[in-house]
Amino acid sequence: MFSTIRSRLIVIAILVLVSLASLIPRSVTVRERGPDGAMRDVVTKRVPIKRGLDLLGGIHLALEVDQSKGAVANASDALDRALTVIRSRVDEFGVAEPLIQRVGSDRIVVELAGITDPARAKAIVERSAFLEWRLTDMDNQFREALPAVDRALIEAGITAGERPAQPSTIDQLLGADTAAAGGDSVTADTTQTLDRPGPLSTLLFNGSIPGEFLVPEEDFPRVDSLIRLPDVERAIPRGLDLVWAAEPVSQGARSYRPLYAVERRSVLTGEQLQDANANIDPTSKQAIVTFTLTRAGGRRFAQETRQHVNDFMAIMLDGRVFRQPPVIRSEIGRNGQIELGSASLQEAQDLALVLRAGALPAPLQIVEERTVGPSLGRDSIRQGTRAGMVAGALVILIMLAYYRFAGILAVSALSFYALFTIGGLAMFGATLTLPGLAGFVLSLGMAVDANVLIFERMREELKLNKTPRLAVDAGFQHAMPAIIDANVTTVITAAFLFQFGTGPVKGFAVTLIVGIIASVITAVFVTKTFFLIWLQRRGPAKELAI
Amino acid sequence: MRLFDNAQYNLMRGWKPALIITILFAIPGLVLLGIRGLNSSIEFTGGTLIQLHANDPAINTAGIRSALAAGGIVGAEIQTFGAPDEFVIRARLDPRAEQSESTTQETREAVRLALTETFSAEAFVIDRAEAVSPKVSGELRERAVLALLMGFGATFLVLWLRYEWRFGLAAIIATLHDIVATFAFVSYLNLEVSLVVLAALLTLVGYSLNDTIVTFDRVRENVKKSKRGDYFYNLLNRSINETLPRTVLTSGTTAAATLALLILGGSVIRPFAWVMTFGIVTGTFSSIFIASPVLLWIERRWPSEDVKIMKGAGMAAPATT
Asked: What's the pTM value of the predicted model, to 2 decimals?
């Protein structure tokens, strides 16, 4: 298939370009909570190779439902509840891209890269959930207080200004910079900015229910930092809190984060909730969540709902509002239901899970913890890189000393190998860990093996007085079975390591597999092409210096 | 440059000294292992590990020990780790004692508090902390055993499918030699056995098999070309000698890489680097001195059709060489 040198060179060029392309540093925007407690978007440029916690520094926690103080009924649901709770706290951790996932039937794994305070992270994970239902700001008190809030901001030196081309980076947090001029941001969608100009009010759009405001997702970090300023908190009417929705909503092509002004007083808390389940309403065929309250909770809820018919009630878990607050249709006693309109059953199940998470505590215990300090991670990268460079240099020296001309081919093949391996790791989104780095260094020594096999074979064939052309052909042909057999076993072993290993070992296994594939491609493709070119240039009569 | 070019060593003769070296190396190591037990990492035992960097030169192992004792923690293992100001504190769980799941977490906090009490909070930095509950360590043990068994099993299956059983068996015996020798080596250095070290073990098995396979491929090829009346003994010898330059060169470049890791790679990866470095030595050794003699021995007892027509089914060198 790739018989001509030309087609071989094209394939090599493609491989090199693909590898290089996958290694181009790209800008990533990460949202994280800074040390001052405010959210911020940080744009960084980085080579797209994921690094493991052992290189970045960070904390790995494995959690299980704590059954030591009495059995927890329905452990699987308890784990789902706990997962909902931890996810809702995602930005409290203060790190970019936290990993929170359910592993197997009974475990949650939380991985936080680059965390500086493991004790705080553990406290966030282990804190029990708090569910409450609060009425939204039905009297528009917050909206009326907005001019005062804006004044407070202007007095504090924060003004509304032109929206910069690159919105919402950390730099503009304190400068006279941001804020939307209504014109371009209000497009075909139904949202409207509040008509008063001001540092905060220009960033808020009207929501569809009383007390609801929409903030463009890109302004979320800035608005979050503004409403946390003490001056702003003082200007917010007494008895009101500003709380964010857990998830952004999309309207048209844009994504908004709802902000709710809610009463500080809660109508109901998780303790008064007994159970909640998702159902399909038999008459309307729509998804609903039914809930049952405790006896005392039911009495209180009946009284509250009687007074607040047609008011909206936000469902808050750990200070985040889940779904748009539903309206109270009539007095509700112990049993009630939340209608979700056109939402799917899955969405109803998610909401029921939020309610249960607040109602039924799911105590977690940490069964495994691995913390690596950032300095140790940095040391590991530095030492691993140095070992890799020394190893590479030694291998190059040995090959050049031993094979001279062919050694140059082997060395350039080695650099192709390194490029393909690193590019492959980036392409498959593999995570580079310390054992993975070590595996890569090790593979620099092993990768020349295929070349050595081929070259040795050529030497033998030359000794039998074959022409260089025949020697090259025979060398490749006869070395192939050994190369394949030897590598197949290693790939299989690595696959089992990947299957059964923990994070760092998985990183090792992936590096090994990608490395072997790259090594075989390099040997049979790149090195052979080099030889073919050499044969064509030199003509068949010249001696092969190997 | 050429090494071992046209080598014609009677390497097959080396099986006796090789066997003696193996026995002398492996038996005391295994006995030591039996007495001292495997130095398992806390991944496998459960427990707590804390690695700390001392900013205050006054901190030493004795100081840490008394600080921990003052905080009511006794029996923890305290070692320097790679550098005089790096320490590792290990508190393994007693496998026989009933442990509550939270113990490991509490130990970690207790160690931190005890150290802060005696030294100041600025005197040390915790670089690494691991706490593994007995349940998780049990699972990790199980997974490690599974990874090893299935890794070996699959490797052997490939050998069995790709090679005639006599070759496969000989390769397996050579590999088992490497595994035993490596365990002895681990036991001499009292290396901490973690999942990463087991990964190194599986990798070295792959490496050693790789070496053996290259030699056996050559044997297979030479058998096809052999004539009636050739000595199988000589054929094996010739095959080893023909592949010797490759064996030595690849071992050399790989050893260069593992030595770089061992010396420069840092203390966290050092056990891995030790096992890999030794693995190259034993893998090369076994593919030269163990695999082919074992193959000869197997062929002598159960000769295959190809070899039956050859002479020299003895373990000693034919008189003609």
From this structure: 0.79
